[in-house]
Write a structure and sequence with these properties.
By secondary structure, this protein is of the alpha/beta class. It folds into three domains: 176 residues, 3-Layer(bba) Sandwich (FAD/NAD(P)-binding domain), CATH 3.50.50.60; 114 residues, no CATH class; 104 residues, Alpha-Beta Complex (Polyamine Oxidase, Chain A, domain 2). It is built from 14 helices and 20 strands. It has a seven-stranded mixed sheet with strand order 7-6-16-17-18-15-19. A five-stranded parallel sheet has the order 9-2-1-13-20. 44% of the residues are buried.
Length: 440
């Protein structure tokens, strides 16, 4: 079967590309390995409870993309104002950090250090950083960074901040610095709605409903599910032959690839050089193990997300779907999703569901976050390729990008394919640009 365009992967990036391809009357096929589109942005069910595979939200950072999503979801895209908090030393600190919250929580001698460090930093002008720790110290000071940022970052990405790239957080910290802390003090009582943890949009029936709606718009005939790509061959006359596990063979002159590099680079013919394959195969992605817990209580908290930077907690974040949309849980009951970062080859990821849930529950019981008698249902979910673990030594990955750019009409799109932390609105923008390039 020959198509104008083949899109490899049916996650957010692939579905966004499919939407714009359909809009431009391009014949295409999306090839997805799992039984449902959405990648790591699915909304799943546990009885009467719904939950997202991640603490997703839609940020109104690009008006055109917001209009697009609203046109897809209509009245099901709702505005949510649910604050997030950091749990530190058994205390609750507002996130994004606000000076008044820090003053109430942090000992006075540390407040003095935070102020002095950031005062001195204001006279330093540095544009190059060797790692994430240097970047954090320069932007927020050593003390503030070590209290709330470095430990959380190392837990989430599974590596020392001395080795992590300064880019691991994407744009999440762009609007947060010591100046914004001082500004928050003068604006006390008004939330920072410009920060991505403040006010946001959210689909009434879960974040995955964006991609479920796109599935219907794109058309089932244009999407192959449960059929992984096993080979990409560049033929003569700049055509590609893509083979799938079920034996299907699809031909196209153009490919948009959203697959992780360590997958697509290893199934290409002619094969890339051993040097490029070595770079690719040394890349690491952080995985997540989720414990979804239904509780026989109205609420767990009033927050969209709770962050846990300290090592005493094995989890990094807890989010409560009901605080995003009341339609995700029955009345007078709620559910929480506990995220435990890990690697796909470690004991946490490989442990049996019951063992993993017991591991999470012990930590929750120990800290008196929940009681055993409140649990009415529980399950675990495993998620690979959750975050690209960007290390400073991974700068060689640009050589892989250069290789793919040199291929005829082969475009990499999305977080995994480009090994870069991106948000949904950025993916939709990039997908539209890909289709524009296709038509040019």
């Amino acid at each position: 079967m020959e198509r104008d365009l083949l899109i490899l992967g049916g996650g957010p990036a692939g579905m966004a590309a499919g939407y714009h391809a359909k809009k431009n009357n391009i014949s295409f096929s999306i090839i997805e390995s799992s039984n449902k589109v959405g990648g790591n942005c699915k909304t799943l069910s546990m009885g009467q409870f719904k939950y997202d595979t991640g603490a997703h939200r839609f940020h109104d950072k690009d008006k055109a993309v917001t209009r697009l999503i609203r046109s897809i979801l209509k009245d099901d895209l709702i505005k949510v104002s649910a604050p997030s908090r950091i749990i530190w030393k058994n205390k609750s600190v507002e996130f994004p950090l606000e000076l008044t919250s820090i003053i109430r929580t942090v000992p006075f001698h540390l407040l003095v250090k935070i102020s002095m460090e950031n005062f001195l930093n204001s006279f330093r002008k540095i544009s190059t950083f060797n790692n994430f720790r240097e970047f954090a110290y320069y932007k927020y000071g050593k003390t503030l960074s070590e209290l709330f940022l470095i430990n959380y970052t190392e837990k989430l990405w599974g590596e020392s901040a001395d080795l992590l790239s300064k880019n691991v957080s994407g744009n999440r910290l762009k609007s947060f610095n010591y100046l914004s802390l001082l500004k928050s003090f003068s604006n006390y009582g008004r939330k920072n709605e410009e920060h991505i943890e403040g006010s946001f949009f959210y689909p009434r029936n879960g974040f995955g409903s964006i991609f479920d709606a796109l599935y219907e718009i794109i058309g089932r005939k244009n999407i192959l599910l449960e059929d992984p790509v096993i080979n990409i061959t560049l033929l003569k006359k700049d055509k590609y032959l893509v083979r799938t596990k079920s034996g299907k063979e699809l031909i196209s002159r153009k490919i948009i690839c959203t697959l992780p590099p360590n997958i697509f680079m290893n199934i290409m013919e002619p094969a890339p050089s051993p040097y490029l394959l070595k770079i690719t195969n040394n890349l690491k992605f952080r995985s997540l193990r989720l414990s979804i817990i239904a509780l026989n209580k109205d609420k767990f908290s009033n927050n969209a997300s709770l962050y846990f930077p300290e090592k005493i907690y094995p989890f990094s974040r807890i989010y409560e779907p009901k605080n995003r949309s009341k339609h995700l849980a029955p009345r007078n009951q709620t559910c929480i999703v506990v995220e435990v970062p890990c690697f796909s080859d470690d004991i946490i990821f490989k442990s049996k569901e019951e063992e993993f849930n017991d591991f999470v529950n012990k930590a929750l019981f120990r800290s008196n976050f929940i009681k055993k008698e409140d649990i009415i249902d529980q399950k675990a979910y495993s998620m690979e390729y959750a975050y690209p673990q960007q290390l400073e030594k991974d700068n060689e990955f640009q050589k892989v990008i250069s290789f793919t750019k040199a291929l005829p009409n082969f475009i990499t799109l999305g977080r995994n394919a480009n090994f870069k932390y991106l948000h949904t609105h950025e993916l939709f923008n990039q997908a539209e640009e890909c289709i524009r390039r296709y038509n040019s």
